[in-house]
C-alpha cells in the first residue's frame, strides 16, 4: 500500500494565490505536503502510486481547505439543533476542512477548562473535519481565561448584547476591562459580538407592528447598535494596544469609518463578515420568512455593496459562515413570526458556492476567495502554521473545485441536521467534487458524498 498520494492539475492555487500547473506530493503517514512540482505530472511519473492515490484534477481548481472560524455546533446540550457529526459532514461537503467552534449554544458553554473538556469528549470520534475551539468571556469568569489559553482555545468571544441563551450572558465595560487585563500579555484574541443597546429597547417593537415583516425586525436592530459597540471596543483598544481584538459578523456599513480609523492608527484589529451579508439584502426578503433572521440582521442593498467594497479594500479581513442553526420549531416557520424566531442562518456546505456565485458577477478571482476563506481565517484562529495555504510542510487539506458547475440548493442537498436555510431554491455556480483532510478523502461528491468513508477529524 502506497504511503503517498499525488494531486496534479492545471489550476492549483498555491501560496501566491494564483492558479497554476502543479503537482502536490503528500505523505499519508504524516498528512503533510512534502513536495510541490511546478508542472502537471503524467500518471507514468509515479508508477508506485496506486490508482486511488492518483488525483488528477485536470482543469478544475485544487484549493486549500477552507477554515471556517465561526461555527456553532451546539453539542453537548443542544445536539438536536446541530452536532459534531452532522455539522462537520456539512462542512466537508462544502470544502471546509477546519472549523472553529463557538463557545455558546452548547450546554455547558466553553467558559472553563472543565467545560472545554466536556465539549472535547462529546466531539471525539464524530468529526469529519478538524475542529478547534473558541473560549467564552462572561461576567466573573476572568480567572479561567489563562487556563483556557493553556488548554488550547484559539481565543475568546463575548457579547455586548444579550446572546439569546441564559448560560452565556453579555458583558459590560467593567467586565471587559477585567478580561482585557487578564489577556493583554498573551498571544490570544478577544472577539466581540458588536451590538450595544444603550436604550434597552432592542428586539422590542410597537404593539401594532407586524411581526411577520422583515422590516419590523430590521428596525429593532439598527446600525447604530453596531456603531456604538465598535466605538466602545476601539476606545478600549487604545488602552490595551498589545491585545488583538476582532469584530465578528460585521453587518453595519456605518461602522466602517471607525474600523478604518482604528486600523490606520496601528491597532491590531481584525474584522469578519458573513456569506449572508454579502449575498442577501433586506429588500428581497419575503414576508413571513424567519429563516432569514440573524443577529445582527441582513441589511439593505446599499449596505451590502459597502461591505463588498470594504472586503475588497481590506477593511474587512475575512468571511465566515456563522452557521447558527436550531430546531425548526424555534424558527416559527409556520407562524411566520420573525420577531420571536431564533436568530441564526444555516450555511455549512454552501459558503464557497455562495461567495463564488457573487464574486463572478463582480470579476473577483478565486485568489481573493482563498485569501478570505482560507489564509485570513487560518491566521485569525492561530492555525496559519499548518492550515490555510498549499505549501510544503502544511497539512494536505485540499479540495477539488469545479468552478463552472451549476447546482441548485435543495433540502436533499443539505447535510446539516435541521434542513432549513434561506438559500433553498437558489441556483449557484461552483461545486466541490472532493474534499481531503491531511490527504485523506472525507467527501466525494461522485459517490453520494460519504459512502464508505469515516470521520478522521482531529481536535486542535
UniProtKB/TrEMBL annotation:
Identify which top EC class this enzyme belongs to. Answer: hydrolase
Pathway membership, UniProt: Nitrogen metabolism; (S)-allantoin degradation; allantoate from (S)-allantoin: step 1/1
Q: Which Gene3D superfamilies match?
A: Metal-dependent hydrolases
GO biological process annotation, one example? allantoin catabolic process
GO CC annotations, alphabetized: cytoplasm
Cofactor names:
Zn(2+)
The record's annotation in Pfam families points to: Amidohydro_1
Q: Which GO terms describe its molecular function?
A: allantoinase activity; cobalt ion binding; zinc ion binding
User: Which InterPro entries does the protein's record reference?
Assistant: Allantoinase, Amidohydro-rel, DHOase/Allantoinase_Hydrolase, Dihydroorotase_CS, Metal-dep_hydrolase_composite, Metal_Hydrolase
Location of the Amidohydrolase-related domain: 61-439
EC number(s) stated in the UniProt entry for this protein: 3.5.2.5
Identify the keywords attached in UniProt to this record, alphabetized.
Answer: Hydrolase, Metal-binding, Zinc
Q: Which reaction equations make up its catalytic activity?
A: (S)-allantoin + H2O = allantoate + H(+)
Name the domain of life this protein comes from.
Answer: Eukaryota
Q: Which residues form a coiled coil?
A: none
| Similarity-based family | Belongs to the metallo-dependent hydrolases superfamily. Allantoinase family.
Question: What binding partners and quaternary form does the record give?
Answer: Homotetramer.
Task: Tell me what this protein is called.
Answer: allantoinase
Amino acid at each position: 500500500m502506497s504511503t503517498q498520494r499525488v494531486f496534479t492539475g492545471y489550476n492549483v492555487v498555491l501560496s501566491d494565490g494564483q492558479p497554476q500547473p502543479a503537482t502536490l506530493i503528500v505523505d499519508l503517514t504524516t498528512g503533510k505536503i512534502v513536495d510541490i512540482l511546478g508542472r502537471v505530472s503524467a500518471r507514468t511519473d509515479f508508477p508506485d502510486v496506486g490508482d486511488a492515490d492518483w488525483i488528477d484534477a485536470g482543469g478544475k481548481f485544487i484549493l486549500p481547505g477552507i477554515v471556517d472560524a465561526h461555527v456553532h455546533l451546539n453539542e453537548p446540550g443542544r445536539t438536536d439543533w446541530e452536532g459534531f457529526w452532522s455539522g462537520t459532514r456539512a462542512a466537508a461537503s462544502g470544502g471546509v476542512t477546519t472549523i472553529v467552534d463557538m463557545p455558546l449554544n452548547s450546554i455547558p458553554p466553553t467558559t472553563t477548562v472543565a467545560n472545554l473538556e466536556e465539549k472535547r469528549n462529546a466531539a471525539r470520534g464524530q468529526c469529519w473535519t478538524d475542529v478547534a475551539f473558541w473560549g467564552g468571556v462572561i461576567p466573573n469568569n476572568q480567572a479561567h481565561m489563562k487556563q483556557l489559553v493553556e488548554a488550547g482555545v484559539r481565543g475568546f468571544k463575548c457579547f455586548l448584547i444579550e446572546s439569546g441563551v441564559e448560560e452565556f450572558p453579555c458583558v459590560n465595560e467593567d467586565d471587559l476591562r477585567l478580561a482585557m487585563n487578564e489577556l493583554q500579555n498573551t498571544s490570544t484574541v478577544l472577539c466581540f459580538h458588536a451590538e450595544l443597546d444603550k436604550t434597552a429597547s432592542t428586539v422590542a417593537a410597537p404593539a401594532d407592528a407586524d411581526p411577520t415583516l422583515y422590516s419590523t425586525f430590521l428596525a429593532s436592530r439598527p446600525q447604530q447598535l453596531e456603531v456604538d459597540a465598535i466605538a466602545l471596543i476601539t476606545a478600549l483598544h487604545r488602552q490595551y494596544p498589545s491585545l488583538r481584538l476582532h469584530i465578528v459578523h460585521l453587518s453595519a456599513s456605518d461602522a466602517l469609518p471607525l474600523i478604518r480609523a482604528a486600523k490606520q492608527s496601528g491597532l491590531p484589529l481584525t474584522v469578519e463578515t458573513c456569506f449572508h451579508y454579502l449575498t442577501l439584502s433586506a429588500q428581497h426578503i419575503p414576508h413571513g420568512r424567519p429563516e432569514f433572521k440573524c443577529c445582527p440582521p441582513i441589511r439593505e442593498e446599499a449596505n451590502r455593496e459597502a461591505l463588498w467594497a470594504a472586503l475588497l479594500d481590506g477593511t474587512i479581513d475575512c468571511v465566515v459562515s456563522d452557521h447558527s442553526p436550531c430546531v425548526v420549531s424555534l424558527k416559527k416557520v409556520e407562524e411566520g413570526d420573525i420577531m420571536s424566531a431564533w436568530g441564526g442562518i444555516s450555511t455549512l456546505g454552501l459558503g464557497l458556492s455562495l461567495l463564488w456565485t457573487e464574486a463572478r458577477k463582480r470579476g473577483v478571482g478565486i485568489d481573493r476567495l482563498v485569501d478570505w476563506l482560507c489564509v485570513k481565517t487560518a491566521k485569525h484562529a492561530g492555525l496559519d502554521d499548518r492550515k490555510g495555504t498549499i505549501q510544503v510542510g502544511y497539512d494536505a487539506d485540499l479540495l477539488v473545485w469545479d468552478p463552472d458547475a451549476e447546482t441548485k440548493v435543495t433540502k436533499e442537498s443539505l447535510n446539516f441536521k435541521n434542513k432549513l436555510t434561506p438559500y433553498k431554491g437558489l441556483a449557484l455556480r461552483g461545486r466541490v467534487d472532493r474534499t481531503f483532510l491531511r490527504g485523506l478523502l472525507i467527501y466525494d461528491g461522485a459517490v453520494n458524498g460519504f459512502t464508505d468513508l469515516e470521520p478522521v477529524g482531529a481536535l486542535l
